[in-house]
Write a structure and sequence with these properties.
11-stranded mixed beta sheet; 2 helices; 43% strand; 291 residues; mainly beta
Amino acid sequence: MTETPNTPPTPGSDERQVEWSFDFSRLGESFKRLLESLAGEEEIKTSEYTLEKAGVSRAEVDIHFSVGSGTVRPFTGASEYLVHATLKHVGEIVFRADGDAVKHIELEQKMPEGISAAPLRQGFRALTNSRELQWDVLLTPDVPLNLEIDGGVGPVTADLTGLNLTALSIDSGVGTMHLTLPAVDAPYTTHIDGGVGQVTIIIPDGASGKIKIEGGVGSVDIVLAAGAAVQLSTEQGLGSVSVPAHFRLLKEEFMSGKLYQTEGYELADKKLVILYEGGVGQLKVTAAADA
């Protein structure tokens, strides 16, 4: 703050002109330097975690991303592993694997038991270096998976093409979530919590089952394969709903919701049911040919 008299003060008067000046362009860099000073010399580490798939008939996999970007995808070739994770992180990581034929696997950032200097430094270092922090998780397509993904703080890309999913739960966290669903023989249920940020859901040809979406703060974009048999039920929140022209409106309730359905839905072999509960933001549904 600079303080500059506008006119010479009148004797006996305390009136002065006060001029405020603030450089917002330097705020981001100043905040970054502040976090770096608070973080000290907290180290960025690279860690790998693996688990073999031999003897495993099915698995429950919980991935809880932290600060930074993340990816989840299948192995592109033959692999002996059920999961292979490569992480650039600060602080400690917890990797648990319990069970024999049925595995329960959990990957997450270790949370501090109480407030102390070390966990605070790790948090400041994570925020300062969020662009450098990256979690890459590979999963096998050879074992049925019940998959849970928590987005954390940062962008997450989950290309689940080819995975053998039996159930899927997504919490998009704070940031963007780009999700590609697999097409599997048996229908399964997907639950998506919108969180804070944009969520994009790519649904391929042949996908079936039920998708429950709880809108958060931000838009939800769904891209459907052309010709998909879809029934869409919406409960609109503080935002709009946009659907393709070939979606027929079957029912509309005042101040409540709408029910849409594609032509020939009842006769389709593979059907997709989408239940959308609106949050703060838009739901936009497009067909692949229109996207």
